[in-house]
Model the fold of this input.
Amino acid sequence: QHGCLAYVIAAVAALSVGDPFVREASCDDAEDGGEPSGHGDGETDGVPGEQSAARRRFWQAQARLAGSEPTSDVLKWLTVVGAVEYAGGSDTACSEHFVRPKAMGEIRKLRHQLTALMQTYCPGAGAVMTQHMAPPNKTQQAVIRQVVLAGFVDQVAVRGDIAGYHAPDDETATRRRGLHAVPYMTMWSNEPVFIHPDSVIYTTARSSGSMPQAVVFAELQHSTRMWAKVATVVSPRWLATIGQPLCSFGNPLPFPRPEYNSTRDEMTCHVEPRFGPRSWPLAMVKVRQRRTGTRWQITDVIG
Ligand SMILES: *[C@@H]1O[C@H](CO)[C@@H](O)[C@H](O)[C@H]1NC(C)=O
Ligand SMILES: *[C@@H]1O[C@H](CO)[C@@H](O)[C@H](O)[C@H]1NC(C)=O
Done:
């Protein structure tokens, strides 16, 4: 779909290998809840000399790879994989992009293997591995984010205010300090999680002033808090379509009026889906229903 197969293969390879970036220059101060210093905008934390220059280069590279309106750490990984391979994949190319050569080598090997598997078992899909993987365009980015959601659909997190989470009083003060302190709820626990300050999601949140309503994450890390890592912004609408197996739909709403099609013996109507074990309410969607026995059952979500 939209020439996304090569990206999906690269994403699966990268997610299997894990974060390709070097750690040293990144946010050492994230753990105590502080903003990572010098993040993206070339500021330094006042450490003079070599170290702060390296830090600045690191954050500039991160900002470049994240793109102008970042929505996903996975997309950033795809961009760096494409950039490093385009530059020949050498150790120099790796260090210029602040990635570990070993991780890049493993990702390359996996991409080869997965591409070969696809060529063998799905020859019609047209899987090819090119050295020049251009960054995905907007359409492709949305498709890739939906594929990531499909892969991690049980690791969705919804912003605390939407999920009905109330922070205990003594925590509220410290947690109101910034965007990085916005709690999210996962599907399977009462404990809030926080999006790790390494995530590209902050770049967009800083300009919009708010954190996304829903994300999907690939990893949880326990330390001073529960950090959700490798995050991707998802549209709440996708939860009803891609996440349909995890939705309950309730009764058809009286308005807009259900429509019956006698030729097809089908009904289209609007419902209010609820997502996951905590029944997070989603916006109304249109669905198609068919009769099975005496009951009407939803066959698909139209949107
Ligand atoms: C992105 O590229 C795909 C494949 O080449 C194409 O089908 C799609 O229309 C492009 N979308 C945009 C917004 O350029
Ligand atoms: C019912 O479905 C058929 C087949 O898709 C379509 O041709 C027809 O226009 C529909 N009728 C109504 C009333 O929507």
